[in-house]
Amino acid sequence: MVKTLEEAIAEVASLPDADQEQIGRRLLSHIEKLRRLREELDKGARSLDAGKGRKFSIEEFIQQKTR
User: Fold this and answer.
1) For helices 17-49 and 3-13, what crossing angle results, to 10°?
2) 18: closest CA among 26, 6, 10, 30?
3) Cα–Cα distances in Å, from 22 out to 28, 43, 55, 57, 65?
4) What is the structure's pLDDT at 54?
5) Residue 9, class by beta-carbon neighbours within 10 Å (0-12 exposed, 13-18 middle, 19+ buried)?
6) Which of 9, 27, 47, 54 is the most exposed place for a label (fewest CB within 10 A)?
7) Where is 50: in which H helix or E strand?
8) 51 DSSP assignment
């Protein structure tokens, strides 16, 4: 385990149980969000590798988002 994470866990261990539980839930939620993002990025990279990419226009994107 990375030293910084070990230090953080040691600090959390000194907190009351309720605080530990809340921090644990938040950490797991954050990890799950990162995992889903990684999956989406990998999916996009595979799509590009398979030649399924399309031309991207930043101007069109901005227009779509500001409508």
Assistant:
1) 150
2) 26
3) 10, 32, 44, 43, 36
4) 83
5) middle
6) 54
7) none
8) T
CA distances from 57 to 8, 60, 64 (A): 43, 5, 11
Estimate to the nearest angstrom the gap between the alpha carbon of 41 and the chain centroid: 10
Q: What is the pTM of this model?
A: 0.68
- pLDDT tens figures, 26-57: 999 999 999 999 999 999 999 999 988 888 89
DSSP code, position 9: H
Is there a contact between 1 and 10 (Cβ–Cβ < 8 Å)?
Answer: no
Which among 61, 43, 38, 65 has a CA at the least distance from the CA of 53? 43
Encoded amino acid at 67, one letter: R
